Amino acid sequence: MSGYSDVLDSKVPEGPIAEKWTNHKFNMKLVNPANKRKFEVIVVGTGLAGASAAATMGELGYKVKAFTFHDSPRRAHSIAAQGGINGAKNYQNDGDSVHRLFYDTVKGGDYRSREANVHRLAEVSVDIIDQAAAQGVPFAREYGGLLANRSFGGAQVSRTFYARGQTGQQLLLGAYSALMRQVNEGGVELYNRQEMLELVTKDGEACGIVCRDVITGEISSHTAHAVVLATGGYGNVYYLSTNAMMCNVTAAWRAHRKGAMFANPCYTQIHPTCIPSSDPFQSKLTLMSESLRNDGRIWVPDKFDEARSASDIPEAERDYYLERKYPAFGNLVPRDVASRNAKTVVDAGKGVGPLKNGVYLDFAEAIARDGEDTVRAKYGNLFDMYERITGENPYKQPMRIYPATHYTMGGLWVDYHLMTTVPGCYAIGEANFSDHGANRLGASALMQGLADGYFVLPYTIGDQLAGKLGSDPVPADDPVFKEAIADVNDRTNKWLAVKGTKSVDHYHRELGKLVWDYIGMERNKNGLEKAISEITSLEEEFEKNVRVLGSADTLNQSLEKVGRVSDFFGLAKLKARDALVREESAGGHFREEHQTEEGEAQRDDENFKHVTAWDWNGEGEAQTEHREELVFNEVPLTQRSYK
Amino acid sequence: MEKTMKLTLKVWRQEPGQNGKFQTYEAPGISEDMSFLEMLDVVNERLIEEGTPPIVFESDCREGICGTCNLMIDGQAHGPEKATATCQLHMRKYNDGDHITIEPWRAASFPIIRDLAVDRSALDAIQEAGGYITAPTGSASDANLTPVPKEAADSAMDAAACIGCGACVAACPNSAAQLFTSAKVMHMNLLPQGQAERWKRTENMVETMEEYFGSCTNHGECHEACPKEISLDFIALMNKDYVKSKIKNRKLSGQN
């Protein structure tokens, strides 16, 4: 297939980049305050994007229904983000600006994101910091009482705001508190412990969702004028990742099956600083914040199969490979570059630790320079966490780190309004594909989730809703809801009837190994083709041999998991196909066939300067590929260099 | 070579609407590098293969920050390691042959859903009663217009570190939720941004807490069990603000 699809209209407004959003806000249709209460909006997911969107739309007067499968909105996985949130405040007077944040993000994304979306993100980044501070988010402060900043990978300015090592938790508590205020005032109705299992459409438009109450098993329909998916990324397709145990692709995948195109599923961020896995029963990997790279130095021994402990290896026999190869950015190169370099040295046999599966992240120099107390004040909780997990003290010996799946840049395709290809269905936060291109810079996930939720969607959703004034939502007894409920029940009964021999986790683990081996940090044609066939046969076995005990009318964790893993199988196959057709290397997608002489990612702008979006064709049929051309008017396309 | 252990688990099993009982399970081949919850994953996988419904327990982030995991291990909320949530407890704390008793959170306000899973929605009710600063989106001024003394910011952060797991309630002989509530109240009361609603917030949150939970008698078990080591000082500060709120709120509503 070649050429660009006319199906995908990004709806990017005309005009100079810096004025697009401002002008567009004026040009969009408004819903007057008295009419907002006539519109019902469903928000699925209560992480940063979902909670901020639900709270803000509740404040505006829309009738919002917020759904989470957790017991409390505050448990969404945004809570685990450690390092920080970017904001182009230039409080440090070091030359930062909206344009620089925009530029860094487009470049960091390896020129595979949509310029207009990224510029808008950079513009509202400053409002997010103000908003969060007003909500009482306890950001780090200088002694004078003003906000503190630190620098992060892929940037040469200090624009990252942080709250110890718990920035995600504090920002989520801010959004959650705004949400609970709306719950208290009646602007938002909160549905806890409800897992969305179907997106319901009528005449091609989104009109509601079907949920399962995870405690009672009850299946229910919920109707609305618009449905917003804020359901996170698909990193758990790897089984082992830094995602929480329950993170899944089901809501997005169910929408995909109803016509929402899935964009760039091959783009996955492998985060460079995670604790290496230690045994075969490992259930997840733990991230050590990237902020550690500000003061930690990454190295491996010069010698292959080094047996000495770190402290016995003299300076002269250490290879600080990032500082050596990238003198300008050193240990602060972007995540994809840091990860791939770690893989290279470990594959070469220079790995450290009992399983030889890590590299050192060493704080000895920072401790000697600033003192242990200063280092403790900055990173104390991270060091404690490391010690609890590994039993090693990072004040005394270097940490061991290795890359792990962390974030997914791909997701549901959305236009400038954040609407998917199903009219009335929106995707925000990590669930959409829009802002990070092929690689996300550190401290930008929190920024994007909150930008979408607080400052973008609440405006853009009005444009679509305004046209629906006077129309009631499709009623819950409409045949489309009955069909959706029947589909959910059929699937449930199917899983309970298999009565196979192996647990859901067994198959999830096996799937994860295939995805990591063939669609991980490096990919090639043979591997990807193999992945598709092996995933397909594993899926066949899974459907014949998985064992789900118990019944559907009660809390049944195996039943919850089996549906999620089944959707991961579908996603994994699409991910492999997406990686196969993208015959170039870009950001988190590294094709071995496409690298520079120095082993860096080699883009092919002539043929691949586009978003790949996949359209569902029905069960058993291959998805159709569509392409949205990316236009770079502001940021000149260059080979990314961090040397 | 890594050390493996054989353990004996006594686990609380309870079906919805029925009485529960302890069930004993053997757990052989446990590696010392496993987390406590990974050990339970291994046990569950074997139970599934044997045809026994797996033990229901809740967890999500497994990084000690989401507050979902909640096990009473040998009578201690989150188990024996100080300042550590269940998911961050590792098996190197145990020895071959150990017997471990695993129960759900024990508190009337946290009814058991199934096995080790409980309903903690009472904590959300406290938050809803006033655990926020009213700042509708778009209304904020530039963040640096309101300097916050570093000490105040740090202290607010100490309180805000609460992960809402409910270990404080589970550990308390009275099932009181003072540590949780004070962390939520004082996080905001300590900041300049939180002053306008300080007294209303305190009164509403404390009184909502009283509707659900027992009373505090200063045992301090909550602090001992807290995975984030939230300080008992916050309870004292909250009590002080609560007393003041009774006078302040009368003034604010024009009754004085």
Give the oligomeric state of the chains in this entry, treating copies of one chain as homo and distinct chains as hetero.
heterodimer
Query: Largest inter-chain interface?
Result: A-B, 82 and 80 residues
For the largest beta-sheet of chain B, the strand count, sense and barrel status come to: 5 strands, mixed
Gyration radius over CA of chain B: 21 Å
Which structural class fits the helix and strand makeup of chain B?
alpha+beta
* Helix coverage percent of chain B: 25-40%
Radius of gyration of chain A, taken over Cα atoms and rounded to an integer in Å:
24 Å
Shape of chain B: elongated
H/I helix tally of chain B: 8
Question: Residue-averaged pLDDT of chain B, rounded?
Answer: 96
Please list the strands of the largest sheet of chain A in the order they lie side by side.
6-2-1-10-18
CATH architecture of the domain at 271-405 in chain A: Alpha-Beta Complex
Low-confidence stretches of chain A: none
State the end-to-end CA separation of chain A.
37 Å
